[in-house]
Amino acid sequence: MILVWLACTSPDPEPGPEPGDSMDSQAPELEPCEDGTTRRPFLSEDLTVATTTGDWTLSEHWSGCDSFLFLGIPPSGSYLSTLMDEDPKKLFKKGPRDVEYVFFADGADAHRDDLAEMLDLALSDLNDGDQAHWADRVHIATGRSAGLDGSYGEYVAGVEYPVFGVDREGALREVGYLADPHEGWETTNWEYLGDEAALHAFEAAREDTLVARDATVLRLWDGVEVGSEEWGAFSTDLTDAAAGHNRVDVDITLGCGGPWYDACPAWDTVNWLFVCDQDGEDCVELARLVTGYWRGGRWVMDGTQVLDRLQGPASFTYSGGQVKLVTVDLRFWSDGTDRAPLASNQVWWDNDSFWTDEWVAAHQDHAFTPPADATRVELVHAITGHGSDSEGCAEFCASSHAFHVNGTEFRTDFDDAGSRDGCRDRVGTAGVLPNQAGTWTYGRAGWCPGQGVEPVRVDITSAVTLGEANELDYTALFGEESARNTDANFDPSVFLVYSK
User: Looking at the DSSP assignment, which residues form a beta bridge with residue 274?
Assistant: First the structure.
């Protein structure tokens, strides 16, 4: 991966909301969906499509709990044409169920007949319950995707591949590249289309959580265009925004300014947000994410490990590569407890040292003394493995990360690193961006392309002595090996956090 320093084109961001304002808005009170999320009202631009069973209208099928995915399949000349050679049954059998599909045969009538026959065969091979579920959720248009009206037609006319979605909020959404990286970039996988709906469901649940937190939101950057050769920082006072809150989330959106295949950067790279003192010195990592291949997205990560650094004047720097438009919010909220931060200490931070014997030695014998009046001591870490040697280390090898506090071990395992679908399996559970034009599906060591790195929080209070000296060691392990002595590396950000 390439690391370059970035910042906004102007050091003075647009003013954010006044402290106390929330950027969220409550949806009207409706009966919840079966998955427990809020049922959304219909606020979308309407759409009517002529289908083989009559006119299909979006507003008439709107439940507030479903996604809608629209896919045009040409008879030839596109990677999407290979869908005609694959069995769609796995989409309906294994994919999300809270979705409706509208398919366009972008060719002659005979092509539409072939598509209809293939879908009918796939649906007829399901059990009775699945057949009943999908009976009114799979539709075949009689026209072509290019004939759609309104913003939907404008979108299809402006992209190379005729595929898009409407999420639970009613927003028109891009759909990524449906090629199967396991089989080759000119192949497709029907199941991958359903992954878009899984992301929409994750986002709906996340939005419900954010609304319930009723956060005070302070915007740091607002759609700022960044360039790979620019760097900088700016200062602000967080006193009013942070007042009365004991948690903070970091909310980062990366936009591309256009369709994914045309405007989004190609590679996955690590991005960091640093918080520094008012003079831009004494910086520590506040949040980390990994960009997707060819796709923008939104990530919300816990930043509470450095809440003590966010109580007054501070400055911020965004660092990374392969990004264009950056929006960053700090969301201050309270968890209903009286726990408050006393202090934090970033014990280790590294982003370029190889996993060698010297690296191992540098992460031993850290002495620390917790405040005597602390009631809780936490070890909070974000660790991501990069580089790939003969064993796939550190990106694709299953590794363990052992912390010893006065001899007591606390361990985090990256078991799914190198697995076939370790990152794809996290679309619906952790918000990994699906259908990136790269090897996005494979499991990685502590990260996935198109995902925020959520810090691991470990309560080590029982292993420490408050007000006295304690010792912390950290060892990364591949099997029984504690170092690879190659160009593999882990990028640890490790904090000790004290609260009362």
Answer: 285, 317
